Amino acid sequence: MRKINYLFNTKSNFTLIKSYLFNSIRLKFVKKKRIEYIEKYKKFLLNKEITHDYFSRNAFDWINVLNEFKNIKFEFLEIGSFEGNSALFILENFNKVNLICVDQWKQLYRDDGKREGYENLSINEIEKNFDANLKNYTGRFFKKKISSNNFFKKNNKKFEVIYIDGSHFAPDVLDDCRNSWSILKKNGILILDDYFWIGYSKIEENPAFAINQFLKEISGKYKVENFTKFQLFLRKLN
Q: What CATH number does the domain located at 2-236 have?
């Protein structure tokens, strides 16, 4: 109920609310299968350098939404890579993917006013874990240690799938959404993380505010493929 209230408080559109309710009901029928799949992926991570597992809970949703790309070549861009957990999942399950990982791996500090949630972590160690986790996939991915804005300025590629999991600060999220949409191919999938994340005291500074603004801008140009407790999956129609 708390998430439903948040949807109304952030003035989410009817399509989002309907999609969230539908998925909540659907989950009751696949709960066992979902748990088994997540546990299987967690076992795969046991020999990896993962100190904060923010991704496993999404694995079942990803494998279902992205199933159409299972046996074809496609371009995947992720904004925010952290320890490489989501990148590992993609590289393990999609053999023909060309993956680009964009992350600044920049240390944040509380006294700078940041409330991203990992100011207490050593980003140097997080980046080392990313490098260690992906060392066996050399040639299948490209690491870009750069801000997302600078990446978009230099990029000239189009992508079938884009995953946004960088900054949680609403203005940054909105920039990432707009920039990603402009280089997402028709029928491509945009994955938006942390819709329900609340770290900033002002509701308009959190991801949902930016995402709702973005959805207004692309009204009629997308379809909601899935909306979970953690992530929103959109398909670009035109």
A: 3.40.50.150
